[in-house]
C-alpha cells in the first residue's frame, strides 16, 4: 500500500469499491453447519440469500503466485527505540490437505502450544506478557498448513526464548 493509494481513498468511492469487490451473491459459497432442520432452513435461504442480487461478473480465484518461502529465512532489522524490544515471529509451513481432521489437529496443536508457552515462556521465564499461536489451513493456491508463533520480549531474553519455542514443539 502506497501513500498515493491511501490518499486516493474517499468515502464517496466506497460504494463503488464495495460493488467491485462483492458484485453479487453468485460469487459466494454459503455453508451452513449445525443442527438445522432442512425444511426450516430452506425458506429462510430462499428469502434472505435468494434476495441478494447476482451479477454477470462472477469473482474467480486469481493465483498471485506468492508462496511461503522454503527453508529457513531470517529477517533481522533494527530501528532506534525509546524502549528497545525484540519482536519474534516464527512461521512453520507444511503441505497438508484441507480436511476436517487436519483442521481439528491444527486447532488442538494451537491450543496445546498456547498453554505450554503461557507456562514456559510467560510464567516460568517471565519473558513476555503474551505469546500468540495461530494457524491457517488453506487449499488455494496450494494445500498448506501454517503455524505462526509471535511474541515480544527484551533484547536480553530473545536468544533464550526462541529455543524454548522449538523445544515445546518437539
Shape: extended
Number of contiguous helices: 5
Distance between the termini: 38 Å
Report the sheet with the most strands, covering strand number, pairing sense and barrel closure: 3 strands, antiparallel
Total strands? 3
Highest-level CATH class of the largest domain: Alpha Beta
What is the CATH architecture descriptor of the largest domain?
2-Layer Sandwich
Radius of gyration: 22 Å
Keywords: Hydrolase
Pfam families: Peptidase_M16_C
GO molecular function: hydrolase activity; metal ion binding
Protein name: Protein containing Peptidase M16
Task: Describe the secondary-structure layout.
Layout: H1 3-7, H2 14-21, H3 38-49, E1 86-95, H4 100-124, E2 131-138, E3 144-153, H5 155-169
Antiparallel strand pairs: 1-3, 2-3
Task: Tell me about this structure.
The protein has 170 residues and is an alpha+beta fold. It has 2 domains: 12-60, no CATH class; 86-169, MTH677-like (GMP Synthetase, Chain A, domain 3). The chain is built from 5 helices and 3 strands, in the order αααβαββα. The protein has helices spanning 3-7, 14-21, 38-49, 100-124, 155-169; strands at residues 86-95, 131-138, 144-153. The protein has a 3-stranded antiparallel sheet. Helix 4 crosses helix 5 (155-169). The chain is extended. The two termini are 38 Å apart. It comes from human gut metagenome. Keywords: Hydrolase. Its EC number is 3.4.-.-. Residues 9-170 form the Peptidase M16 C-terminal domain. GO terms for molecular function: hydrolase activity; metal ion binding.
Amino acid at each position: 500500500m502506497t501513500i498515493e493509494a491511501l490518499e486516493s481513498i474517499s468515502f464517496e468511492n466506497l460504494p463503488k469499491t464495495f460493488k467491485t469487490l462483492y458484485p453479487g451473491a453468485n460469487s459466494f459459497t454459503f455453508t451452513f453447519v449445525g443442527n438445522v432442520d432442512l425444511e426450516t432452513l430452506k425458506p429462510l435461504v430462499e428469502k434472505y440469500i435468494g434476495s441478494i442480487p447476482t451479477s454477470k461478473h462472477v469473482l474467480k480465484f486469481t493465483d498471485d503466485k506468492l508462496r511461503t518461502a522454503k527453508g529457513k529465512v531470517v529477517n533481522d532489522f533494527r530501528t532506534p527505540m525509546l524502549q528497545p524490544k525484540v519482536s519474534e515471529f516464527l512461521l512453520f509451513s507444511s503441505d497438508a490437505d484441507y480436511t476436517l481432521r487436519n483442521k481439528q489437529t491444527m486447532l488442538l496443536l494451537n491450543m496445546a502450544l498456547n498453554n505450554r508457552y503461557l507456562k514456559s515462556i510467560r510464567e516460568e521465564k517471565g519473558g513476555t506478557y503474551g505469546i500468540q499461536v495461530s494457524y491457517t489451513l488453506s487449499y488455494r493456491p496450494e494445500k498448506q498448513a501454517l503455524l505462526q508463533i509471535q511474541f515480544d520480549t527484551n533484547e536480553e531474553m530473545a536468544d533464550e526464548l526462541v529455543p524454548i519455542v522449538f523445544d515445546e514443539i518437539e
